[in-house]
Amino acid sequence: MASANTCWSEENFSCSICLDVFNNPVTTACGHNFCRTCITKFWDEQVQYKCPVCNKLFNTRPDLHVNTFLSELAAQFSTTVQVKEKLFVEQADVPCDFCTGTQLKAVKSCLECFMSFCQTHLEPHQRVARLQKHRLVEPVDRLEDRMCKKHDRLLELFCPTEQVCVCQFCTESDHRSHPVVPLKEEYEVKTAQLGKIEAEVQQMIQDRKQKIKEIKDTVELSTKNADREIAYGWQVFTALIGCVEKCRDEFNETVQEKLKSTEKQADDLIKELEQEIEDLTNRSSESKQLSHTKDHLHFLQAFRSLKDPPPTRDWSTVEVPPLSCVGTLGRSLDQLEETLNMEMKKLRGAAELMRVQQYEVDVTLDPETAHPELILSEDGKQVHHGTVEKTLPDNPKRFTQFIYVLTRQSFSSGRFYFEVQVKDKSKWYLGVARASINRIGEIIVTSEMGHWVLLFNKNGLFFKDNPSVRLPLRAELQKVGVFVDYDEGLVSFYDVEARVHLYSATGCTFSEPLYPLLCPSLHNGGTNSAPLIISPVNQTD
Length: 541
Hints:
Largest sheet: 7 strands, antiparallel
Radius of gyration: 56 Å
CATH architecture of the domain at 374-535: Sandwich
CATH superfamily of the domain at 374-535: SPRY domain
Strand order of the largest sheet: 12-13-24-15-20-21-22
Shape: elongated
Structural class: alpha+beta
């Protein structure tokens, strides 16, 4: 029976209707087998009941009985097929070279036979004495590629000199003078190198992902900057267009006023001429009437009143000059140019201020540097001059003569910007200074000595240098912005409320950290008691 089973195929256990392995097989009176579901459905669709295989007719619908024996055999066959299929599908990495038809998975490879064997076909190597001497290894795919082409031996060594795999015979010939190591040893070395390479590759991947993020962040920032610039540009050009339209309207109004004046002059003269014409016409009527009288006495008496003409103007010199607008347009354009220049200067300053404000930094005052007479707020944002000098421990960072204070934060590269409220102050210093400026005794406030500051006092506004630069001031300062581009050597000051540029020190040489510097100056009996206040930037001002 076992031998017979090995000859059975899937056809012996297949339903002739569905062509699949029997499922709940039943047998008809003519001896043919079908799945119960298949034959039942078949007869449900027929007028006559007949066998699908031999076409035998039945007078009545036959009673079907399960073929128990065939059902068990079909179940066993189905299980065997599934196991074999699973074995082949899941384990077919190295197939048996002896299997015909469906190849099973090899369990060993023979280095003498250059073939791989499943468990069944490996049996001779386990039984025959001569074959037992063959060297068996774990299944190896493409075994012929693992053999030395020259010596027909297994490649089981590695030559680091030439970076090739060799067999034992190679070490006695071509690679006699070369050091060799087992494949496993070189495998471990190369595996470690591969791990390092993989780590480097992963790092490169991460670096590139980071670069992608940086690029996307740059694009996002650029988009925001572009939107802001477009919005502000719209405001700028709208303002400039407004200036042009205003100048156009004023020009039109001027020309219309000149035209009205000419029309009025002409109208007045025409009225006067019409009045004289009316008077002369009346006189002409009287003359014609008198010319027809025959009464000598009446004629002579009336003629005396007619001989003197009514008073009239000498119109030979009177004229209405045509409207002339020569120079009007030119003067309007000159005025427009002057207005636009002023407006553009103002708008450029505002645009520049908006750009530098994006480099705002959060700074707080450092009490360790503050002159003993200075009073700082708890949040480190305000400073004013007190009336009493505090007794403080010696500190090399503290200013002892000039009433200065620096911030805790310093800057050694890049760009930074901060704003300070100077409202209601009659004198102050404000700017940046390098870390090494003198803290004790006399201080020379120039850029050469490491100070880049503005000074405001009763005489006006100055950039302190040698010599100092006097700056124009059209209105009282409320808030001052300070911008530094460390790498470009630039320090700029802005009137924040008026949104105009005040002054820029260019070509500066920075070789050490820079600190924002504030000096509220003396209390001066209360006239200069207001504090200097480090304020947050508000770009909508």
